[in-house]
C-alpha cells in the first residue's frame, strides 16, 4: 500500500472546460470532509466537484466516489479506479470542472477527469503507507526528554501531555514502533 507524499495539484483546459484537480492525504472522514469543503470554497462558481477516496479503517478499506452530477461513471469512477489500481490508502483526489459550453461526451469526460486527477496524483508523489496507532504511555519527569527524543526518532508525534505525579503522553506512532516503545516504558 502507498499514500501521497504531499499535496498535488493540476489544472488543464479541454474544449473550453477548465478542470482543476487536488490530490491529498486524508486520515479519516473528518479530514476528508475538510479537504473537500476547503477545495469547494476556493471554487464556489464551479459546476461540478467530483472526487474519490480510499481509507484504511478498523473495518478494512473504505472506498467511495462521487460523479457530482456528471453522467454516471464519468467523473468519480475513473479517479477511483486509479486509486484502487495503485493501491493508495488514506488518500482523496478531487476534480473541479468549470463548464465551457461544449459537451465532451462520456469518453471525453472520463479522459478529462481521469487525466487531470492523474496529473495531480503524479505531482503529489508516493511514499509507502505506514499504519499509525495511538498509544498512551506514562513516565517519570526524569525520562520525559528521553521519551520525546525516542518518539521523534521513530517518526511519531506527541499529541498530548498531562502532568501530575507522572507525565502521561498520548502518542501517534507507526504500529511496529509502538510495540517497541511500549516494552521500553
Provide structural commentary.
The chain has 185 residues and is of the alpha+beta class. 35% of the residues lie in helices and 38% in strands. It contains five helices and ten strands, in the order βββαββαβαββαββα. It has helices at 29-42, 76-85, 105-124, 144-153, 175-184, and strands spanning 2-4, 8-14, 17-25, 48-57, 60-66, 91-98, 126-128, 132-139, 157-163, 167-174. Strands 2-3-6-4-5 form a five-stranded antiparallel beta sheet, with helices on both faces. A three-stranded antiparallel beta sheet has the order 8-10-9.
So what's the overall shape?
elongated
Order of helices and strands: EEEHEEHEHEEHEEH
Helix count, DSSP H or I runs of 4 or more residues: 5
* Total beta-strand segments: 10
Estimate the mean pLDDT confidence.
Answer: 91
| Helicity level | 25-40%
Strand order of the largest sheet: 2-3-6-4-5
Category from helices, strands and their pairing: alpha+beta
Regarding quaternary structure, how should these chains be classified? single chain
- Beta-strand proportion: 35-45%
Q: Name the poorly predicted regions.
A: none
* Radius of gyration of CA atoms, rounded to a whole number: 21 Å
Sheet of most strands: 5 strands, antiparallel
Pfam families: Impact_N
InterPro entries: EFG_III/V, Impact, Impact_N, Impact_N_sf, Ribosomal_Su5_D2-typ_SF
Protein name: IMPACT family protein
Family: Belongs to the IMPACT family.
Amino acid at each position: 500500500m502507498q499514500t501521497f507524499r504531499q499535496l498535488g495539484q493540476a489544472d488543464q483546459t479541454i474544449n473550453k472546460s477548465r478542470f482543476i484537480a487536488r490530490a491529498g492525504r486524508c486520515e479519516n472522514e473528518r479530514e476528508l470532509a475538510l479537504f473537500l469543503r476547503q477545495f469547494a470554497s476556493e471554487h464556489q462558481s464551479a459546476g461540478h466537484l467530483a472526487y474519490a477516496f480510499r481509507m484504511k479503517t478498523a473495518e478494512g478499506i473504505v472506498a467511495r466516489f462521487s460523479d457530482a452530477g456528471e453522467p454516471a461513471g464519468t467523473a468519480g469512477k475513473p479517479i477511483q479506479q486509479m486509486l484502487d489500481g495503485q493501491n493508495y490508502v488514506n488518500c482523496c483526489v478531487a476534480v473541479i470542472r468549470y463548464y465551457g459550453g461544449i459537451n465532451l461526451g462520456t469518453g471525453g469526460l472520463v479522459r478529462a477527469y481521469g487525466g487531470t486527477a492523474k496529473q495531480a496524483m503524479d505531482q503529489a508523489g508516493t511514499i509507502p503507507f505506514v499504519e499509525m496507532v495511538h498509544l498512551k504511555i506514562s513516565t517519570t519527569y526524569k525520562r520525559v526528554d528521553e521519551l520525546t527524543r525516542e518518539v521523534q526518532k521513530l517518526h511519531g508525534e506527541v499529541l498530548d501531555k498531562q502532568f501530575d505525579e507522572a507525565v502521561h503522553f498520548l502518542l501517534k506512532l507507526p504500529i511496529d514502533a509502538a510495540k517497541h516503545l511500549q516494552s521500553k516504558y
